[in-house]
């Protein structure tokens, strides 16, 4: 049986997402909700706390619970999708700013990530992703020149994956991902709009071709308020 507070939480979420409760409006008071749902104030507080944790409301002392406009993008953790593909799917108009495109020998860290030697060369691409005038992602891509002999700034401003798959005819197969939360670096704060934020969500991607060749390592550094990292899991019964 579903806990009462979860039932209340889900009911309010349904109303918010359907537009029945407008952004920036106040939810009824705890006392009013208690009477409405026929439950205890403690149960109502649990439901409101969960709504706040999930980004649906902001509890303001002296006012109550204010409904927040949902501006987060659902970022599929298990999927292998480009930023442009994600933004277009969500109906957002993105802008990509290329801060660096260079071909260099890898340092020790990148050698370890791509499992290459000092003799190899790597494309280093640094791009800022902007949506709605806010710079919210810093993508740092490292591509093994063995598989990507040539790339331009114009390609990086649009879609690298479109170029790799349609021009170079590479078959991108799968990726291993690691998600961590860290303090922003000086570079993060310089390139992204991070005022008031003390953490950044980093997705590390190790991307492989169909023959299991590791050709790309990426650090995608996200402002935490703009994304929900989602996945679908199915239990395998033994």
Automatic annotation (TrEMBL):
Gene Ontology BP terms: negative regulation of DNA-templated transcription
Pfam families assigned: GntR (PF00392), UTRA (PF07702)
SUPFAM superfamilies: Chorismate lyase-like, Winged helix' DNA-binding domain
Annotated TM spans: none
Keyword annotations of the record: DNA-binding, Repressor, Transcription, Transcription regulation
Keyword Zinc-finger: no
Gene3D superfamilies: Chorismate lyase-like, Winged helix-like DNA-binding domain superfamily/Winged helix DNA-binding domain
Keyword Repressor: yes
Stored PROSITE patterns: HTH_GNTR
A GO molecular-function descriptor: DNA binding
InterPro entries: Bact_HTH_transcr_reg, Chorismate_lyase_/UTRA_dom_sf, TreR, Tscrpt_reg_HTH_GntR, UTRA, WH-like_DNA-bd_sf, WH_DNA-bd_sf
Domain HTH gntR-type: 2-70
Protein name: Trehalose operon repressor
